[in-house]
What does this fold into?
Amino acid sequence: MANPGSIVAFRKDGGLALGVVAGEEKQRVRVVVSGGREERITEGRIAFEVERGGRAPGAGPDDKRAAGRRADAAESHVSALAERIDVPLLWDLVLESGGDLEDADLADLALGERSQAAQAALFRALAAEGARFQRKGDTWAARAPDALREILTQRERVARRDEDRGLALEALAGAARLGTFAPSDNPEERRFLEALEESAVLGPDACEESRAAALQALQASGLSYDRLQEGAFLLLRRTGRFASDDENLEVLRHRMRTRFPPEVVEAARAAAARGFSRERRSDLTGLEVVSIDGPHTREIDDALSIEPLPGGGARLGVHVADPAAFVEKDDPVDREALARAATRYFPDARLPMIPEEISEGAASLAEGEDRPALSFLVTLGAGGEPSSYEVVRSVVRSVARLTYEGADAAMRGGESPRSALLREIGRFTTLLEDRRVAAGAVRIPAPEVEPRVLGDGRIVLDRIDADSPSRRLVAEAMVLAGATAARFCSERSVPAIYRRQPPPDRPLAATSFTPGDFAAARAMRRSLRRGEVGISPGRHFALGLEAYAQATSPLRRYQDLATHRQIVAALLGLPHAHDLETLQRIVATTEAAEADGRRAERAMDRYWLLRYLERSVGAEVDAVVVDLEPRPVVLLLETLLEEPMAGLAGRAPGDPIRLRIERVNPRADLIVLRPVPGS
It folds into this structure.
């Protein structure tokens, strides 16, 4: 070990530092450095003894300050020597002579002296330059010219990248301050923009590298934000990447198609203009057929009829739009529909599966228009028991397009031209529902809230009544059609897409409850197992059916369109439209896309509900406790948003509670609620 009082040069952070040896303790050398600070280093880190001897510093602060001044003086001397060294010239000399040189020899060549201080200066200069020489044990070797060129080229790249990074961060900071941004060809700028977009769109699912780059850009921008994805969006909004504060990022997240390619639109227009063939279709235009939909529905894909039969029974007709009359398998419209999988509904936009020329025009069951359909005609006994069925390709003409609200009024006592028809259909669908419940079906009578954005930007909430008689009527008729489609295909060994649901792992806590019991509804939903989709029939627990195939929404769900094609081919005596392998591919493709679409719809519904609640910050709202395990959850009664909530000790599921909205940040998916004291 160097003697106490000696000045040593020791390796630190890739270079050399100087200090005065104070002694040894626990196999470490105590060294006093500039400013009188003491460091403890291993003996192996000491490279040179710059100055031997001298007074060993004592433990007092004055002694350490004095030792620090000695270290500073040595530092100044070594630094001055290092500045005199011309490393490129030294490299030329060593390269010309060849061979490796020891510290003293190379210091003599560089400075004309072999002192320890000169060797320390040499080490510092060569380590700082870092390109032309490399350390080999106790000697220095000059790097070959090719290796040097590669290092210098890489340094230039790094320097350019650092410069580009600085310019990019400066440009983004300017965009944050001024709201103006002029894109450049700066590669670092592109990298930051891509990282910001990935972070804004994917949120926590963005890769770590992108999140780190986005955070760096945001730190430079000076913007304030609650969550990284929100900050990334805000900065990109300032650059002009997004056109609206309410940009639908779910469309980007799930890579949804927002526009139909020109060839798809052209094909749809041509098909709509050609019309449909009535050949081998049953003319059912004499039936009193009505459709019931929401007031904003644009594609009408189902309608109903009922015919009384002797003995008190009836023939219930579910007539489903037949887009296959216009869309041929594997034509441009069909390929696009398969890629989209389903129509997606957002509060401020809609992404149709099939172009409007067909889905809202030629194939939609519009009032007063002859339209091709696939009709499911089921004969029911007086007690609602199905006795026979028939599925036919048909032509139907809707005599009325009704809204749920109008249909409810007609069924609940109002008199309209369709009151008798609706009440009769409602009577039989109620019997059908009762039969399913007796067979084990589960009904969860919970209301729903759908946010909708008007043209002027106002947000309205459409509340869906769980006990709406017309909604229950339509839902039961669709279940009947799906059960009939499944029966038709299974009895004829027609490959089809079936929906199944296994029974719960444990008995349900309750089988019936009132529409306002939100805690029971949540418990019921959580106890049910996830549904399955496949090409073999199986029991659907919640529906109480032995087999079920969705077939009533072919204008907006590709799986239904595929089922239609299978049924039509069987009715016409043709080979299956899709074999088993093709159906499996359709299921795999569309199920993943539908799942993404449902997630996107839920996310945007939540975003717009939070936007709606922004206006209520500081206000009190009514809520109900719906869960306590694994964490407490409340449901806001106006919006039906479910939120985790701390501080609910002593509460039970179903308890009402009054909450104050403290803060809302929709883009950060954040709402802060506090219980109102005494509520």
